[in-house]
Amino acid sequence: MMNREVEAFAVGNEHLLDQRLVKYDCIASIAHARVLRKAGIIGSRELKALVLCLGEIAQLNEKGRFIIRPEQEDCHTAIENYLTARLGNTGKRIHSGRSRNDQVIAALRLYEREALDDIGRGIQKLVAATSLFSRRYRDVPIPGYTHLRKAMPYSVGKWAGAFGESLRDDLKLLGFVSGLISQCPLGSAAGYGVPFIGYDRRLASESLGFCKVQENTLYVQNSRGKFELMVLDALNQVMLDLNKLATDIWLYSSEEFGYLVLPEEFAMGSSIMPQKRNPDVLELVRAKAAVFKGCIDTINNLLLGLPSGYNADFKLTKEPLFSGIDAAQSVIDVMAVVMSGITVNRDRCRSAMTPELLATGKVNELVLEGVPFRDAYRRISASLSKKNHRRLT
User: Fold this and answer.
1) Catalytic annotation on 96?
2) CATH number assigned to the domain covering 4-93
3) pLDDT of 357 strictly over 50
4) In sequence order, what are the residues at sequence separation of 6 or more whose Cβ sits closer than 8 angstroms to the Cβ of residue 367?
5) Nearest Cα to 159, choosing from 244, 52, 79?
6) What is the pLDDT of residues 234-278, one digit of tens each?
């Protein structure tokens, strides 16, 4: 009998994390059962009973009534126990031709694929809000900045449009990753295939809507964590964009700039200073982007130094994957709300358009008149220096 303390350490919180995989394990188990029927492991009536019972489990889980107990360790054991209790020997046969290794990978990929679809829809809403804002304020001038110093004339519309364009590129990247991870692991078992059973891997893949079978069975195991990292790396591009967007809004809505107006319903008050309205939502977006990066680092570090094949270290990739996806979804959703609510102080924007912003344009005017660029640059620079000197004196 296993030492209880060791068992508790080995199980950890996996039984809690796996609640979100129950639905996907049921879907994958239905596809697996169809393969077993084709291989002659189960009969038609058994297949029908399994499909009905797995659907029942999914419904119970959706209502919060399918609870994984700590001693069951994960959703796979909990589901098999339920099937066995309800269907007897038919339930015992469900694990023929598979391992918990390919079982969990299948569930994770189905979960990741759906999560990326949900996040993609969230990004589309954010892009729509950003595009509407950009069109509404396309002609409002503001300074463009380099080194956070005034550089050249720009507009509020173009500023917002930069984020919309970047997010559309992010959507393409997420679509690419979703397609890349759409490889069916079933039939790889513990990493070395399913001998003698005649497991139709193509049928399993087509039943689950994967793009292809992941052919090399050892690669199935070696890709655990790798594919999760691809998902988070792609989402990191979104988080970096939203970190910058939140920082810009945070800065431009400050009293010192005043270009943007953050509605009061988006701001938090102070416990001591009654006049304060703080942009906590924007600061927390930045912070979540930093925490998200920690999820990537955790998985990346877990994969370092592992030999080929399954290693229990992989269990610890679930929590940062789930945490990262949850963080990304929450940030995307709240930034869509923010972009739909902020407005522009047109007067403050126009008053910030000081004459030195036109310096580069004046250089280019001289260039068009035939003056060599460097001479034009020095001429305009000298004229600006004289004006600044006159102001000081």
Assistant:
1) no
2) 1.10.275.10
3) yes
4) 373, 376
5) 244
6) 999 999 999 999 999 999 999 999 999 999 888 777 678 767 788
Q: How far is C-alpha 142 from the chain's CA centre?
A: 32
CA atoms in the 13 A half-sphere facing the CB of 194? 22
Confirm whether 147 is a catalytic residue.
yes
Give me the residues paired with residue 213 across strands. 184
- At CA 118, angle to CA 116 and CA 120, rounded to 5? 65
Q: What is the DSSP letter of 307?
A: P
Measure the N-to-C terminal CA separation of the chain; round to a whole number of Å.
90
Which token pair is 100?
């918990």
The 8-class DSSP code of residue 184 comes to E
The sign of the dihedral angle between the CA atoms of 206, 212, 217, 221 is negative
The CA-based angle 11-17-18, given to 5 degrees, is 85
Residue 42 is encoded by which pair of tokens?
């189960």
- Could you say which of 1.20.200.10, 1.10.10.10, 1.20.1090.10, 3.40.50.1240 is the CATH number of the domain covering 100-351? 1.20.200.10
pTM for the structure as a whole: 0.93
Question: Considering 44, 147, 271, 389, which one is annotated as catalytic?
Answer: 147
Reported residue count of the chain is 393
Would you say residue 353 has pLDDT above 60? Answer: yes
Catalytic residue among 270, 308, 351, 385: 270
- Sign of the Cα torsion 45, 46, 48, 53 reads positive
